[in-house]
Design brief:
- The chain is an alpha/beta fold.
- The chain has two domains: about 100 residues, Enolase-like, domain 1 (2-Layer Sandwich); about 250 residues, Alpha-Beta Barrel (TIM Barrel), CATH 3.20.20.
- About 40% of the residues lie in helices and about 15% in strands.
- It is built from 13 helices and 15 strands.
- The strands form three sheets. Strands 4, 5, 6, 7, 8, 9, 10, 11, 13 and 14 form a ten-stranded mixed sheet that branches. It has a three-stranded antiparallel sheet with strand order 1-2-3.
- Strand 7, helix 8 and strand 8 form a beta-alpha-beta unit.
- The protein is globular.
- The N and C termini lie far apart (about 45 Å).
Amino acid sequence: MKITAIESFVCHARMRNWIFVKVLTDQPGLWGWGEATLEWHTRAVIGAIEDITPLLLGEDPTRIEHLWQMAFRQHFWHGNGIVRATAISGIDIALWDILGKIHGVPCHKLWGGPVRNHVRLYCHLGGGRMEDFYETKPADAERFGDLARQAVAEGFTAFKSMAVPETMPLEGLPPIRYAEACVRAMREAVGESIDIMVDCHARPSPRMGLLFAKALEPYDLYWLEEPCWPETLDDIAHIQRSVKTPIATGERLTGLHAFRDLFEKRAASVIQPDLTHCGGFTEARRIAAFAEGYRVAMAPHNPQGPVSTAASIEFGFATPSYIICESVHADVPWREAVVSEGFTVEKKGRIVRPNTRPGLGIEIDEAEVAKHPFQQEMLQRSFYKDGSVGDW
């Protein structure tokens, strides 16, 4: 059995272009699907996939570890950069899909079988409006409360929001009070039985991140995410030690070595590797072994397309440290038309029952994808009050 081609399919989905990766074999009807979505870098990722493809053509698709090592270590430049790591991830996910199909079992059974009966989902409420970030307006806090109630009405027992505003390296009380008001409104809206996460999106400086963490500590968050740049792991570790709130990070880290440093510094209670960026299933399983050793929870980053979601869920059923899965369910109205899925979602509690089909249990409708060709992603620009560049 040999790999005969690796194809990329771009599907524009409002905020991002989904990049689906199809690995074909010389066996009729046998192929695998992966995803390598990296918003604002779509053309670069497709180019990276094309660069890696000659290494893998003619190779046995079941030698997944061997092929991963080739894609990562050949061409001299290791696959640590986000573009190449994402390309490797998409191909790797597709190879595991093929292996599951060969053996006629879901991917999670290739990794030792299910370790849980269901996977819980959480949704994302979005963020505040820039014009409100420097002035606490009751209407905006009320809007967060309304969104929180809506999420619970839709069956979610957990949700995340970007209630922490963009700030300069040091600011006064207004952004702190803004975040407090929004989080207070959400907690009062849903009570203590619902888990609330707040995503700082790595916008604050380490000092501002600590101030936000201290201010939001009374609201008993499930986690506070990326309170400062992931490049400053020592500062994330300091914030982790300074508050009782669990700190989450890792969506922008690629590869085992980056996570090794995070674990050694005890920088987080929750790690969030993205299966479409960190190195696919092959590298994610190594990261998960580290997480288990350090007793750190896993909650993969997953704001992308339907293949990413299927992969994240499949991974969750075989990973002991996995606690919850990010869910995108309202990004584009035709999302379900693009994919056929093997797992089922129960609205009450928003829990997922296991996929029973081989591999990832999904199939992509290429004709439907073709209806949504590449478009330039919406520009996301952020500036502070003085006109200097901020982190989006």
